[in-house]
């Protein structure tokens, strides 16, 4: 029997990228998947792909900055299939698609802060608010929140994103404590650089820059959406039944490196490869 036979999963941002791969992964192992995405056309395309491969999925347009959309998303899964077992909270793109989201505490606007936190942090609180009661009715379930390596290591002028992803890790631990007695495990994934469809376009025409980026990883490659989908599948399975409140780094070893040595190594690499172009 497949690991998720008869289970119902909701994936936010489930049309493409990490969410798209996760939707396909869980569906391929028996889950009935509700793909919740602000891009309904892309979500429907992923549904067609899953259906063609023998899986079961439906799509719903969801803006995770909207309280009502999140409530309706959970209700739609329960109405369609009678239960909820898995919630993967992956959507975050709206918070990073605006130039105004970049900056320090001095330069970012209050509106940009509120917009970013609504997607990066508040949406995850609301997802749990509506998912936990539904999961409790069938004896438990799993919530996986998408954090980032940026939740523990900071980059310049990225206050909103870094604060939001750090909050995801903290909320994950708190939710694990609060909902463990109800049979609900809550974990987070901290991806490194994942070459999604969107990031692949970012690197078009800059193969040398991508090569330099790849060299920063001990495994000598950047991640694929399937790498994260596989980790999510593990955390939602019985193989991980004694794991909760954990932030799992799926980053090709990027964050384990001593920074001062790493910086020297990269400077030497750049000097030896003057042909490299950087984004």
Task: Set out the fold topology.
Elements: E1 8-12, H1 17-28, E2 32-37, H2 40-52, E3 56-61, H3 67-81, E4 86-89, H4 110-137, E5 141-146, H5 159-179, E6 184-191, H6 197-202, H7 207-215, H8 225-236, E7 247-250, H9 259-272
Parallel strand pairs: 1-2, 1-4, 2-3, 4-5, 5-6, 6-7
Characteristics of this structure?
single chain, 279 residues, alpha/beta, Rossmann fold, seven-stranded parallel beta sheet, 9 helices
Could you please describe the fold and organization of this structure?
The protein has 279 residues and is of the alpha/beta class. The chain has a single domain (8-201, 222-254), classed as 3-Layer(aba) Sandwich (Rossmann fold), CATH 3.40.50. Helices cover 47% and strands 14% of the residues. The chain contains 9 helices and 7 strands; from the N terminus they run E-H-E-H-E-H-E-H-E-H-E-H-H-H-E-H. The protein has helices at residues 17-28, 40-52, 67-81, 110-137, 159-179, 197-202, 207-215, 225-236, 259-272; strands spanning 8-12, 32-37, 56-61, 86-89, 141-146, 184-191, 247-250. The chain has a 7-stranded parallel sheet, sandwiched between helices. It starts with 7 loop residues before the first strand and ends in a 7-residue tail after the last helix. 41% of the residues are buried. The model has no long low-confidence stretch (mean pLDDT 92).
């Amino acid at each position: 029997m497949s690991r998720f036979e008869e289970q119902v999963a909701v994936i936010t941002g489930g049309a493409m990228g990490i969410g798209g791969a996760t939707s396909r992964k869980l569906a391929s192992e028996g889950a009935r998947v509700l793909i919740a995405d602000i891009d309904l056309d892309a979500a429907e395309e992923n549904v067609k792909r899953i259906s063609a491969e023998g899986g079961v999925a439906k799509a719903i347009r969801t803006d995770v900055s909207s309280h009502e959309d999140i409530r309706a998303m959970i209700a739609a899964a329960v109405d369609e299939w009678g239960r909820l077992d898995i919630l993967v909270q992956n959507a975050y793109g709206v918070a990073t698609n605006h130039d105004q989201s970049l900056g320090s505490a001095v330069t970012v606007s209050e509106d940009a802060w509120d917009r970013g936190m609504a997607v990066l942090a508040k949406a995850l609180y609301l997802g749990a608010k509506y998912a936990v009661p539904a999961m409790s009715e069938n004896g438990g379930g799993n919530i996986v929140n998408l954090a980032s390596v940026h939740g523990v290591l900071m980059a310049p002028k990225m206050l909103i994103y870094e604060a939001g992803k750090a909050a995801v890790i903290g909320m994950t631990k708190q939710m694990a404590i609060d909902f463990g007695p109800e049979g609900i495990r809550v974990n987070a994934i901290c991806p490194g650089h994942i070459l999604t469809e969107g990031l692949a376009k970012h690197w078009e025409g800059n193969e040398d820059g991508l090569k330099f980026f790849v060299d920063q990883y001990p495994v000598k490659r950047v991640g694929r959406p399937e790498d994260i989908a596989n980790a999510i599948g593990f955390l939602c399975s019985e193989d991980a039944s004694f794991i909760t409140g954990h932030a799992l780094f799926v980053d090709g070893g990027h964050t384990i490196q001593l920074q001062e040595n790493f910086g020297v190594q990269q400077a030497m690499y750049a000097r030896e490869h003057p042909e490299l172009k950087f984004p």
